């Protein structure tokens, strides 16, 4: 069974009802996420929706979930997260994906807006990311020693890329904040229970090959879920 690769769902960036054109009700998926999943040993599956509704059978096919960056959070995103959390399937959130995880966590207990514009002297979107400058690093972040993210990156400080105008003020009850930027913004969170692997980072490791260990660890946990689930159904 170990030769069967895990299937990793990628949540779409939704353009549904953004215009009056029925032909522009589309969903999009970043190639960089597809590439990072495949290069790390997983099989990417583009999660479809039907008028912003979940097609549960596609979620059932997945062994893990990527929450990518994007421009806005839709209610259906929280339904998808809730499914993966309750099924104990691993999740990796990136940029807006990390912020969405934090929003999901906070709103388990209360309705509260936690995404806010960055108020800092440090520019967290200092340049436009292009194919020619994917490896340009913007600022340093500090990682809590002994955390999962510390074990993955093997360092207490790393340099990261950056492309966000907003930040989250808290991570909610189910996450520990384990990475912060030098100006105090939340840059990494991890699930504080032992029954699953759920991690979010504010930067973009999918275009930083030096941080491919994060994807590899995520895929390893998805593989473990797949194998454990196959054994339980035999």
Task: List the main descriptive attributes of the protein structure presented here.
234 residues, alpha/beta, Rossmann fold, two-stranded antiparallel sheet, 24% strand
Report on this model:
This protein has 234 residues and is of the alpha/beta class. It has one domain: Rossmann fold, CATH 3.40.50. The protein contains six helices and 15 strands. α3 links the parallel β7 (64-67) and β8. The radius of gyration is 17 Å and the shape is globular.
In short:
The protein has 234 residues and is an alpha/beta fold. It is built from six helices and 15 strands.
Strand and helix map with partners:
Layout: E1 7-10, E2 13-14, E3 27-28, H1 31-39, E4 43-46, E5 49-50, E6 53-54, H2 56-60, E7 64-67, H3 75-86, E8 91-94, H4 96-106, E9 115-117, E10 139-143, H5 148-153, E11 157-160, E12 166-168, E13 175-181, E14 186-191, E15 198-201, H6 212-232
Parallel strand pairs: 1-4, 1-7, 7-8, 8-15
Antiparallel strand pairs: 2-3, 5-6, 9-12, 10-11, 10-13, 13-14, 14-15
Distance between the termini: 12 Å
Q: Could you name the CATH topology?
A: Rossmann fold
Give the total of beta strands: 15
Radius of gyration: 17 Å
Task: List SSEs in N-to-C order.
Answer: EEEHEEEHEHEHEEHEEEEEH
Given as residue ranges, the uncertain stretches (5+ residues, pLDDT < 50) are none
